[in-house]
Specification:
There is one protein chain. The protein is mainly α. Helices cover about 50% and strands about 5% of the residues. The protein is built from four helices and two strands. The protein has a two-stranded antiparallel sheet. The longest helix is centred in the middle third of the chain and has 11 residues.
């Protein structure tokens, strides 16, 4: 039986620590490399909190697994 894990929203700094990427690198990914796609998910460069949808997107793009 497969268990489904629910993605939680979190602070940008918390996410970067969790995935082992420096905050500055994460900022470059989010505000430059993936900005157009994140903007479609209501991402704003000034926001501090990532929604579960944005976290899922980053997990897929950065190949992050639980």
């Amino acid at each position: 039986m497969e268990t489904e894990t629910k993605t939680m929203g979190m602070l940008k700094s918390e996410y970067s620590r969790r995935v082992g990427i420096p905050v500055s690198t994460m900022r470059n990914y989010m505000n430059k490399l993936y900005y157009a796609e994140l903007k479609e998910m209501d991402y704003n460069r000034c926001q501090n909190y990532l929604t579960p949808k944005q976290v899922d997107f980053l997990n897929r793009k950065l190949v992050i697994t639980d």
